[in-house]
Amino acid sequence: MTVHIGAKTDEIAETVLMPGDPYRAKWAAETFLDNAKLVNDTRGMLGFTGTYKGNPVTIQGSGMGMPSLSIYVNELIKDFDVKTLIRIGSCGGMQPDVKVRDIVIAMTSSIISSPSSAIFREFQFAPCADFSLLSAAVKAAQKKDATCHVGGIYSSDVFYDERPDLNEQMTRHGILAVEMEAAELYTLAARYNRRALAILTVSDHLQTGEALPSSDRERSFGDMVEIALDAAFE
Ligand code: HPA
User: Ligand 1: which residue has its CA nearest to atom 9?
Assistant: First the structure.
């Protein structure tokens, strides 16, 4: 047990999928895992452990934003010795060909700041995905015929952004999408020598203003969960 995760040491699997939303964790565990059992409900940040094709998996909410994710990832790594962490979440498209419902797999993520900025100081660390997970996820997405983009994203500290000029520079430099967690996940994985990947569904588009209708959210989210599970156990 830790400050934020009430599970016993052996109740968390070596592989953890992390949606931002704890209710998405519940839905994904009940839909895709066998024998899913609630292992954490501290602060309502639900976590479930079960098996996928016989492999133990935990699906644990991360909350929104890098500070929240950092709490859970630090405890999962240091106290539960988790080896593989895959974020499954939503993102805002930033390129014309990155459409709502598409999948974005983050090779790297740019930031303005993160919980690790204070320790890096002037050093501009480039967080990157684990290549074995990345290539397995691309294969899994292709097998599903999912439209999938692989490249750089932006992990923002704000959802309600006040810098349209900055978005313009990012779009100009090929950033595929914006979300709020991946860069710190990759940084912590690098620090503790773990495997990490962020697989995202485009839920809205910054330029077109298009948004995924709520009726479609479950199906699009489900494809991403299956891609993450197949990549983890390839
Ligand atoms: N900004 C930040 N995070 C997001 C967005 C966005 O527009 N859409 C989905 N996650």
Answer: 91
